Amino acid sequence: MKTVSWKEVAEGVGVLSIVAGLALVAWEVRQANHIARTEVIITTLQQWNEFNLSRFENPDVAQLSLIAMDPEKHEITPLDRSRLNGMAWHFVNIAWASQIAYDAGLLGERDLLNAKTDLNWSLEEMPGLTPELLAIYDQIPYMKGVYVFEPLADAAAKGNLPEHKSPPPQSEPTKDSPEVDQ
User: Fold this and answer.
1) CA distance 112 to 115
2) Each residue of 66-81: pLDDT tens digit?
3) Letter string b/e over residues 20-42, b meaning 16 or more CB atoms within 10 A of that residue's CB
4) Which of 4, 89, 157, 170 ranks highest by number of CB atoms within 10 Å?
5) Helix (H) or strand (E) holding 102
6) Taking 60 as the threshold, does the pLDDT of residue 173 lie above it?
7) Residue of higher predicted confidence among 176 and 119
8) Are 98 and 111 in contact (CB under 8 A)?
9) Nearest one of 80, 68, 87, 60 to 128, comparing CA atoms
10) What letter does residue 76 receive in the DSSP assignment?
11) Is residue 79 classed as helix, strand or coil in its secondary structure?
């Protein structure tokens, strides 16, 4: 019968401790990744909810949403067009953030598909927003070939690019700005 020395026992315990420590670190990394993914999803949903809540709380945003959903029933002023442009950028930024999070491994394919579907919904259900979304797509080269922006690529391929470019922000108030007496 072979006797085991204390040295061999200590080495065995040491190896087991290292393996247990590595397993614990792996579990903690997995938990941290799960938390990070959850936070990204929650943040994205909060951005959409912020917009929806604004439609509920702010009459100006509610009116702008009506213009976006049915532009034929509204006269679109330059101020409305500027606000629609801001709304379009908000939607594009949500989609872009989702794509970046997916590329970093923080969102799954289903979550990225949701972002793409949301952008497609915006094109279909908010025709007054479509010219602004397509103007952004036309102006920003990094959007071409990006999965989440495929609805914009499809709309652009159908020849739905807008006839106008949204004006840059103005340093002087326009006649439609609230600061100017009408």
Assistant:
1) 5
2) 999 999 999 999 999 9
3) eeeeeeeeeeeeeeeeebeebbe
4) 89
5) helix 78-103
6) no
7) 119
8) yes
9) 68
10) -
11) helix
**What are the tokens at 26?**
């792996």
**Tokens for 158?**
């159908």
Q: Which residue has the tokens 């020395």?
A: 5
Structure token digits, residue 91? 């939607």
**Which helix (DSSP H) or strand (DSSP E) does residue 105 occupy?**
none
Handedness of CA 109, 112, 117, 123 (dihedral sign): negative
Identify the helix (H) or strand (E) that includes residue 59: helix 59-69
Alpha-carbon distance of 138 to 129, in angstroms, equals 14
> Quick one: tokens of 147?
């999965």
Residue 47 and residue 40 in contact, taking contact as beta carbons nearer than 8 Å = no
- Show the tokens assigned to 136: 């952004």
- Taking the model in full, what pTM does it have? 0.69
Which residue type sits at 180?
V
